[in-house]
Design brief:
single chain; alpha/beta; Spore Coat Polysaccharide Biosynthesis Protein SpsA, Chain A; 10 helices; 9 strands; Nucleotide-diphossugar_trans
Length: about 250
Amino acid sequence: MPTEPTFSIVTCTWNSAATLADTLASVQRQTCRDVEHIFVDGGSTDGTLDMIAAYPGNKRVLHDVGGGISRAMNQGIEAARGRYIAHLHSDDYYASDDVLATVADRFEQDRVDWVFGKVQVLKDGRLVPPYPTVPYSYRAFASGRAFVAHPAVFLRRAVFERVGMFDEQLKYAMDIDLWLRLGRVARPAAIDRPLTIFRDHAGSVSSANKIKARMEEFQVRRRYLRQAPLAFGVYCLRYLKRMRALRAEAANC
């Protein structure tokens, strides 16, 4: 029987050759080497699969996985053998070489089921300073004041048995849905530094479909109204303000 690695890193790819090199290099540079890297490919026809084939280390590739990003991420989770699981998409990369070692230490010190840190945005070739964040609480997250960035989230593999996996009917807010389920039963440990670099570009789902993403997020948060009704009311006010701004922005384009 293969031994259980400390981390399973799941990377979903589809014609990702333009950005994948940074993703791969950032994992290879980690001081924590006890890693399996699972690639979930949606049928790439560029050089993506050749890059993965040449990539050294402990890896597995799931080929021709269709059905959307939520299904791809779930397929990676089901294939994972690591104690901790993270999703590092093919246009993102870890911010420093000690990210995995730092996260593993927090899991052991705090005995939590999930750990998250900050994300730093790379836009037009420049790193944007990290946004100010509100300390995490379930109510702060439910109200939209606290932020949990998916590329900087790490979870115990066993937690998916408790709360389920990503909702495959969702296209944009599947991570928020999972954090709202998970936050009801397990408080996370937060690391106050950037762990992952997120590329903001025209192809980003969240950037290209902002209005649709906000509408889906509203429907997801509405599912958990009873857990934090006052927080949801605060979120509704923020939602209306943000939607007005997005629609005005779209009208001026």
